[in-house]
Design goal:
single chain; mainly alpha; elongated
């Protein structure tokens, strides 16, 4: 009989599952859990949507990265 994962364990592994970075055994265990647990499946679907970029606001302006950093302006004075 194979071991099953708890919801807490699956939640800890979901980001790795979404990015396909789990071992075959762990991937199979998470897949089996998602097949029977609606709460975890919903969380997985939400993470997958975010990972694929479906929730990204297309109107966000992406600013260029400054090539020079003025460290004096970024110091915190106590």
């Amino acid at each position: 009989m194979s071991k099953s994962l708890s919801c807490a364990q699956v939640n800890a592994l979901l980001c790795f599952y979404v990015e396909d970075k789990l071992t075959v055994n762990l991937k199979d265990m998470v897949t089996r859990h998602l097949a029977v647990c609606k709460k975890c499946k919903d969380k997985y679907d939400e993470m997958l949507e975010i990972y694929k970029g479906n929730n990204i606001d297309k109107d966000i302006e992406v600013l260029p990265i400054k090539k020079e950093i003025n460290y004096k302006d970024n110091l915190l004075f106590l």
